[in-house]
């Protein structure tokens, strides 16, 4: 091994192109977008108290495994509230995109596990139960 072969080998290994991750599947895209929309909606409610119309928007908790989510998405986009609020328009564009993905492109990849519309209005909060502390 020559004195300069080790640095050359390290340079080649460091400069090797990274492996590209697999492209997102329809399911992963729907799941990611639904979580993003839910987070954006919660953020909008927290940061836009000066816009009274935000209070009157339909609730936007999304579960892509609940059949009622399609109606929920349609209702949100059709809501007449906040027509000229940029953040709401951006959110409605994302909601339209998710609806289109779910209803057209990825229709066969989606499995609905529920049709509980009430669960989309009043989601059950996720709680973490800590295990009991063991005494020694």
Could you give a short description of this structure?
This protein is 49% helix and 0% strand. By secondary structure, the protein is mostly helical. Helix 2 packs antiparallel against helix 4 and helix 3 runs antiparallel to helix 4.
List keywords for this structure.
mainly alpha; 49% helix
What fraction strand?
Answer: under 5%
**What spatial form do the alpha-carbon principal axes imply?**
globular
Structural class: mainly alpha
Total helix count?
Answer: 5
Largest sheet: none
Into which percent range does the helicity of residues fall? 40-55%
Arithmetic mean pLDDT: 78
| SSE string | HHHHH
Q: End-to-end distance, in Å?
A: 58 Å
The low-confidence runs, each spanning 5 or more residues with pLDDT under 50, are none
Q: Rg to the nearest angstrom? A: 23 Å
Count of DSSP strands: 0
């Amino acid at each position: 091994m020559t004195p300069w072969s080790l640095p050359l080998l390290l340079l080649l290994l460091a400069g090797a192109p990274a492996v590209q991750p697999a492209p997102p599947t329809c399911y992963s895209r729907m799941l990611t977008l639904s979580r993003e929309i839910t987070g954006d909606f919660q953020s909008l409610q927290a940061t836009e108290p000066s816009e009274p119309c935000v209070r009157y928007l339909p609730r936007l908790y999304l579960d892509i495994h609940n059949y009622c989510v399609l109606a929920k998405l349609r209702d949100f986009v059709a809501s007449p509230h906040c027509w000229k609020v940029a953040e709401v328009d951006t959110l409605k564009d994302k909601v339209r995109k998710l609806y289109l993905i779910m209803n057209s492109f990825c229709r066969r990849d989606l499995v609905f596990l529920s049709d509980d519309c009430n669960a989309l209005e009043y989601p059950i909060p996720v709680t973490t139960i800590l295990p009991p502390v063991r005494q020694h």
